[in-house]
Design brief:
With 362 residues, the chain is α+β, with helices and mostly antiparallel strands. The chain contains nine helices and 20 strands. α2 (95-105) packs across α3, α2 (95-105) packs parallel to α4 and α3 (110-123) crosses α4 (139-151). The radius of gyration is 25 Å and the shape is elongated. It starts with 6 loop residues before the first strand and ends with a strand. The protein binds adenosine-5'-triphosphate. Adenosine-5'-triphosphate is lined by residues 16, 20, 22, 39, 41-47, 195. Residues 16, 20, 22, 39, 41-47, 195 line the site of adenosine-5'-triphosphate.
C-alpha cells in the first residue's frame, strides 16, 4: 500500500465460480487523476468498480485509499461517490431533494443543505430546475443531477459506471466535455468504467484496457492508441491492420520485417530479434498517397495497391486495398484534391513511415 497513490488495487480477485474469475488485477490511481477501466462487455470492469465501492466483496487482494485498507469498510463509510448509467434518481423527490438526500442523511443543518445544494446545481448548470421531478428532465439533465448528488457529499473518490451510455450521440459528446471540465475544475480522483473507446480516449488521463478479467495494458490515451502492446488492445482501440510477420536482420536505422504474404516493411523500433514471429500494427490513418512520379523517400515504406472498395465519409475517405503482395489493408485518407478522382479498381501508391509500423510486444 503506497500512500503516494490515492487508490491502490493490489492483486484483486473476484471469483464468482470456478469458471468466472475476475483478476488478479493491480493498478494505482494518482490524486486528481481521471482513470478509466475500458473493455468489452463481460471483461469485469463493473465488478472492479463494485469492489472499490464496497458493493462486492473481493475473494482476494486489497483495495486501499491513501494507504488505508478499505476491504473491510462498509460501502457507506468508504468516502466514494457513485454515478450510474441509469442515473438512479429518486422519482418521487424533487431535483433539490435528490441532491440534498445524502446531506439530510448526515443530518446537515438546513442552512448548509440549502447553500450546498444551490452550489451544486449551479455547478452542473441547472440552478432553475430545483423544484422539478426527475421525470420532467431530459436524460442529460438527469445525469447532471446524479453527478451533483454524488459531488455534494464531497467524496474522496468519484466512481462512474458507463454514465453516458443512455444518452444519444450528440448529447453524449457534449456531456463528455462537461464531465471532463467539471472533473478538472474540482480535481476529484475519478474512476470511469466504459466499453466505449472514444469516450475513454477523450476523458482519461490514463486508461486500463481489460480483457477477460485481466489488464492488457495501462497507459495514457496516446500510449494506448499509438503504442498498443497487444493485438487485443490494438484491435479494441480504433481500427487497425494487424499482420503476422517475421523480423529480419536490422540495418542502418530500421529493421526489416516480412509479412506472411511476403510484403516487406521497415520498422523503426523492434525489440524482438531476427527470426522472431511477430504481429505488426499499421493504423489506417497513418498511410498517405504518394505521387507515382515523386522521388522515392528511401525512409518510407511504399506499397503499390489496388483499391477494392471505398467509402466517402465527408472528412475522410476509407479504402479497402490489396497490395501487390496480396495483403489486404484498411486505409483512411483525409478527403481532398488527391482523393477526389479515386475509384475502385485504381492502382495507388501508398506510403507509411517506419515510425508508424508497430511491432506488438506480445
Ligand atoms: P458490461 O459492460 O456488460 O457491464 P463488465 O465488463 O462490466 O460488462 P462485469 O459486469 O464485471 O463485466 O461481469 C464480469 C463477469 O462476471 C461476467 O462474465 C458476468 O457474467 C460475471 N458476473 C458478474 N456479476 C456476477 C454475479 N453476481 N454472479 C455471477 N457472475 C457474475
Amino acid at each position: 500500500m503506497n500512500p503516494d497513490f490515492e487508490l491502490t488495487i493490489t492483486e484483486l480477485v473476484k471469483r464468482f465460480s470456478p469458471e468466472v474469475t475476475i483478476g488478479p488485477i493491480s493498478f494505482e490511481v494518482k490524486e486528481g487523476e481521471f482513470f478509466s477501466l475500458l473493455g468489452p462487455s463481460g471483461c469485469g470492469k463493473t465488478t472492479m468498480l463494485r469492489c472499490i465501492a464496497g458493493f462486492e466483496t473481493p475473494t482476494d487482494g486489497s483495495i486501499s485509499l491513501r494507504g488505508e485498507r478499505l476491504n473491510e469498510r462498509p460501502a457507506h463509510r468508504r468516502d466514494v461517490g457513485l454515478v450510474f448509467q441509469n442515473y438512479a434518481l429518486f422519482p418521487h423527490l424533487t431535483v433539490f431533494e435528490n441532491v440534498a438526500f445524502g446531506l439530510r442523511l448526515r443530518r446537515a443543518p438546513k442552512g448548509e443543505v440549502h447553500e450546498r445544494v444551490g452550489q451544486m446545481l449551479e455547478l452542473v448548470g441547472l440552478p432553475d430546475l430545483a423544484q422539478r421531478n426527475p421525470a420532467q428532465l431530459s436524460g442529460g439533465q438527469q445525469q447532471r443531477i446524479a453527478i451533483a448528488r454524488s459531488l455534494v457529499l464531497e467524496p474522496r473518490l468519484l466512481l462512474f459506471d458507463e454514465p453516458l451510455s443512455n444518452l444519444d450521440l450528440k448529447l453524449r459528446v457534449q456531456m463528455r466535455w462537461e464531465l471532463r471540465n467539471l472533473q478538472r475544475k474540482l480535481g476529484k480522483t475519478s474512476i470511469y468504467v466504459t466499453h466505449d473507446q472514444t469516450e475513454a480516449l477523450a476523458l482519461s488521463d490514463r486508461i486500463a484496457v481489460l480483457s477477460q478479467g485481466r489488464i492488457e495494458q495501462i497507459g495514457t490515451p496516446m500510449e494506448i492508441y499509438e503504442a498498443p502492446r497487444t493485438a487485443f488492445v490494438a484491435d479494441f482501440i480504433g481500427s487497425s491492420n494487424i499482420l503476422e510477420a517475421i523480423v529480419g536482420a536490422p540495418s542502418d536505422q530500421a529493421v526489416p520485417i516480412r509479412t506472411e504474404r511476403g510484403m516487406n516493411l521497415r520498422v523503426r523500433a523492434c525489440i524482438q530479434s531476427a527470426g522472431t514471429r511477430v504481429k505488426v500494427l499499421m493504423r489506417p490513418e497513418k498511410f498517405h498517397l504518394v505521387d507515382g512520379d515523386a522521388v522515392a523517400d528511401a525512409a518510407e515504406n511504399r506499397l503499390a495497391s489496388c483499391i477494392e472498395d471505398m467509402t466517402y465519409l465527408g472528412e475522410d475517405v476509407h479504402l479497402r486495398v490489396v497490395t501487390t503482395d496480396a495483403e489486404p489493408l484498411l486505409v483512411s485518407l483525409k478527403s481532398g484534391r488527391d482523393t477526389r478522382s479515386l475509384k475502385p479498381g485504381d492502382t495507388v501508391k501508398l506510403a507509411i513511415s517506419p515510425d508508424d509500423v508497430h511491432v506488438l510486444r506480445e
